[in-house]
Amino acid sequence: MQxxxxxxxxxxxxxxxxxMLGAGLSVPAAAQDDDWELDPFAxxxxxxxxxxxxxxxxxxxxxxxxxxxxxQVGVELKDERTTFRLEAxxxxxxxxxxxxxxxxxxxDRFTASVEQEFGDDWAVRLQGRVYxxxxxxxxxxxxxxxxxxxxxxxxxxxxxxxxxxxxxxxEYADTAGPGGTASEGxxxxxxxxxxxxxxxxxxxxxxxxxxxxxxxNPDRAYTRESASLSYTHPITDDLRVRPAIEVRHTEFxxxxxxxxxxxxxxQFVPEVEFLWWPGDWRIEAEAKYIVSTSNDPLREREGYRxxxxxxxxx
Length: 314
Fold this sequence. Notes:
Blueprint: H1 6-31, E1 37-54, E2 61-63, E3 65-78, E4 82-96, E5 104-118, E6 122-134, E7 142-156, E8 159-172, E9 184-199, E10 202-213, E11 222-234, E12 239-256, E13 262-276, E14 281-294, E15 301-313
Antiparallel strand pairs: 1-2, 1-3, 1-15, 3-4, 4-5, 5-6, 6-7, 7-8, 8-9, 9-10, 10-11, 11-12, 12-13, 13-14, 14-15
């Protein structure tokens, strides 16, 4: 990222290094206990995406095609009620056609978490995460440090409720901050999701989210609320279908629409996804249709997005 604060960049790298060092020192000692299990994991994935959207008069058509490679490695250390997890994840994306935004970007993510079960019904997870070069709602080039707490309640196998509170600290690849440095943003995100289990790989999910980012840079501040409903149905032991629908409402406080009011966008997104997981392979295909309305006529668009991915887990 260009224009970032050297001091903040050092803090980010130090946080990741200390997390990895602490996990590396604790794993050998804990793993000596027969009650603990050490489980390394990895995933390699490749995918392609094609999309097209247009305005209501079909005067402006945007085609967004591309492909990506993704690699993930990590380790879990767990006993009957406690799970430590350390993970590194990288995505390389190539865009072509007349897609808007950056033609190519690489996103890195580092995660450390600990989850503790309390009795048979409750669990709490603490998680820290660092992103480098993230494409976010308000910027195509964002670095982020986040911390979250998740509380889970599952009184019976059929019903599970999770509530997650996440604090996000962001830095953007621009020079809009003091003295020409990168501008910054921060804010809270709250997630609540409910899952009803009908049977094996047979679920109904309801997800609710509210989030905001505050920033001295008026182009970065926003609030968003979203809700989604999905249904996962097994077709065979390895094949599942997942239709879903999502509604997102976003208001950009510092971006003005032609009438002089803050830009206000709403997206309506029906989709269907097929998941075929034979053995260690993961083959997934997804089709979305996105309808966007806004008080800014340039943001009133609709179109499709198709994706196909192939992954192998180790």
